[in-house]
Write a structure and sequence with these properties.
MetI-like fold, 2 strands, transmembrane, transmembrane helix, cell inner membrane, transport, membrane
Length: about 575
Amino acid sequence: MVIERDGRAGRLHGRGRRLHGRAAGRRVRSRPLAVVAWTLAVALPLGFLTLFFLWPVLALVATGFTEGTAEGARLDLTGIPEVFSEPRTWRVIGQTLAQAGAGTILSLLLGVPAAFVLYRLRFPGRGPLRALLTVPFVLPTVVVGVAFAALLGPGGPLAWLGLDQGFVAIVLALAFFNVTVVMRTVGGFWAQLDPRPEQAARMLGAGPARVWWTITLPALTPAIASAAALVFLFCATSFAVVLVLGGRRFSTVETEIYRLTMQFLDLRSAAVLALVQFAIVALAMVVSSGLRRRRERAIAMSFRGLRAARPRLAHLPVILCFAATVLLLHALPVLTLVARSLRDTAGRWTLAHYRHLFAPPEGSALQGGVLDAILLSLRFAAVATLLAVVLGALTALVLSRRPRSRTLRRGIEFLDGAVMLPLGVSAVTLGFGLLLTMHRPLGIGFDLRTSIVLIPIAQALVALPLVLRTLLPALRGIDPRLRDAAAMLGASPLRVLATIDLPMLGRSAGLALGFAAAAALGEFGATSFLVRPGAQTLPVAIGDLIGRQGADNYGMALAAAVLLGVMVTGIMLLAERWRGTGVSEW
């Protein structure tokens, strides 16, 4: 019996060694293929960013700091002291920081109560309401600018406040977008906090205010600080909102670059301001990245499975604050936009503005009908979405890895920062840079500047960071031991990727598609440089209409803004419905 058991054990041990040998052999054979696959996953996004983002942006900056012909160009840095010696430069920089700071503070004050209501309280309709409040973040900036102008400008219901073309109007519009960022960033973190410290403090006699200041707020600090850095970045680089609501008086660095390049062709001054914006963006991104990593570590150690509470009387002040935010900040401008698009100058209800979109009157700024602009916008958005999602998925797969090598970890951090750069660099700088550099790039036999191919490329660059930040948390939530166990059982790296990573990636695919399509559909800054005569996208058409004199042009701008807002809202609600159980940083 002993001999028989020893023989069986020997056979099992031998079979185990053979299986282990086969698995090892498969891993060795698949290693070159895996190396090639991961190399391509890094090279494709980096190559795309280098060709269509870094090169155009650096070329524009270099053009501003050189003089002479291409053969005899020499460095000229005299523009730096000249630009900084002008009082307007410091006024523009100060206004940029003031508007971004005020917008960030207001977004935090309104976003934290919204996070509590939508993530810590349980009530019917919470899910649809949370999805609906994602829409303000992705509404095209030109639509929001027109909506607040309709609310606060001449003829608007709040025109008596005198806030049109002023600082307060800009800050309110910036908060319109970014309350959603705070709500989702802080709320997702808040829902995972361990409730036991709060419960213990209340059992020891602490009141709600003391529990908030001593327990809850310190625990939320990583998420609040991360959201604040991100919101500051978005506010500092806002373009269409400031252009519509602020004019030249309240110019920021972004709109000043546009004015200098489009109206005066002053590339030297624009290049200096572009460097200022790079410095602001780089600082905000470094802070945001560090705080994001801190928040991710806190989430990894946080309590799971927290159940939301039912609303109580003690929650009434927070609920009222949230309701006022939704009704006054979000709903009122949008409803005013819709109402004014349905009225003529005499105040009568009419569909004339919408009819003019399909049959423009004589002298209209709209080239062709709105249907042409819608179809063109959808075509560009479809191509841009495909580019952004493919490149974002490849980048997310790379960034989700945790290599042991310190060099590889630094490389992953570099890739993360590179992909996020388009989020903070001026779309105006990008658009003008593409016009400067895309004359037969890399020896291509035709001039890309004369085609429309650059428009979806620019839109994809704007959407790529949103896609990445949507997909990455789902992949980083995978326990590394799952991949290790699959590899020990003989699965090749590509098999691990197909059976573990891609299914998890699919959980956030719907939301990523929605963000990419909405961002591409509403992109205005870079597209305004790249559109060809007779081929307007809908945001560019709205910008042209709002800049022309005449009641018909203004009414058509309102109606076109409503159509664009409805399209983006439909896309985001569909994406939220399809998002599955994935998580994202938005």
